[in-house]
Amino acid sequence: MGLLRVLLGDQLTPGVSALAGLDPAADVVLLAEVMGECAYVPHHKQKLVLVLSAMRHFAAALEARGVRVDYVRLDDPANTGTLSGEVARAVARHRPAGIVATFPGEYRVLADMRGWEEATGLPVDIRDDDRFLADLGWFQRWAQGRKQLRMEFFYREMRRETGLLMEGEAPAGGAWNYDAENRRRLDRGVVPPAPRRFAPDAVTREVMALVEARFPANFGTLEEFAWPVTAAEAEAALADFIAHRLPRFGDYQDAMASGQPVLFHALVSTSMNLGLLSPRACCEAAEAAWRAGAAPLNAVEGFIRQILGWREYVRGIYWLKMPAYAGLNALEATRPLPWSWWGGETRMNCIRQTVRQTRDMAYAHHIQRLMVTGNFALLAGLDPAAVNEWYLAVYADAYEWVELPNTHGMVLHADGGVMASKPYAASGAYINRMSDYCRGCAYDVKQSTGPDACPFNALYWDFLARHAQRFAGNNRLAMPLQTLRKMPAEKLAGLRAQAAAFLAGPELRPDP
Fold it and tell me: Superkingdom of the source (predicted)?
């Protein structure tokens, strides 16, 4: 009598802990496509295709190795639609001696797993997910007793722990962080190389038809689907980035440009978050390029910081602070999500560009998420629960462990400063400085009031005025708050009236 080894859709790694010690002759691996996971938020069609296709390819790879796989498809008439229901059915089919699983990425799934033992009468071994570079116990020990949980200090510890970009006890190049060198607008004449993309094979095309049939109303299109769905494709995508885009990634990682959705970004987060790529392997490949003289240090450090720093850090914050973290709303924001975020009409070119790109690719890079849609959500006071659901729904790389802290903490400051020392609020000047979006906009970024004024400008000052008392002691906001205090009352009143009129207008229409 063997074990039932349960794998989730984002645990598609041959060495995942749930498969450690696998006995191919006795054990059975369960992978189940269930409606509960496909529909708990209205996932982008490409996200659904990506996960289901990757699951099917991974199951086939296991079977090719002689592993017994029990694979339940979404359209199986007997499918219960829940993970717990499919575990119970698998137990009845195979009568295992116990159940083995890997720690999940979402709190609600962990709660489900913790009920399997009582539901089946079998012992359930939930093993640590050792695919991350910082285990949760280590993070909790690092966080204990600290008044501020800043990513930069965590990142430095992780550099020391892993030895990545280190020269003995010192950081490579003498500095821990080269972010100040990574803020260039895309220069005229610079044409980023097209990323490696992957045409859907027969398995993926079958899943695409299934998703179109089962989720016809979901956001997004499938015409441009080209994500890696196997480890081999993911490794090819990483190699393409290292060779062709990493050398200039650092300079332009914060840039935005019309018709250039990828620029010099890696497009590997979907593969890492599914388990098709190792985060350590991604970091080591980038470091090797620097040591070989093929990529500059500012580019390699910036890329490694996103993985070793941010990716590991937000996972630690998520599991340290959940479940209460999800309900925080420090700025008391309540406004509903505007329909323009689901593809509705908007005169704001930056929002239009980002939403259209998201619709077509299930992708936007971190500055578009933080400083376009995110900045707008912060300034307009959009409800954190609605914003979190949107980010979780529309991006192919979104899982709650990584999406929630980034959105709640970095984007919305809804956690009151757990992650960020200040809210990432900006006027239209930031978007104008880092992109060409303002050139094609119906609004004028140089105006703050009037019918053609860029909405970000009045919204920015209205946001500071609303929360001036809350942030009075925040040193990082001292300069704009001083400007606010010195602003003539009539001017401030005009800005706030402009913001109020915009928030009551058609751009903030909550439904079609």
Answer: Bacteria
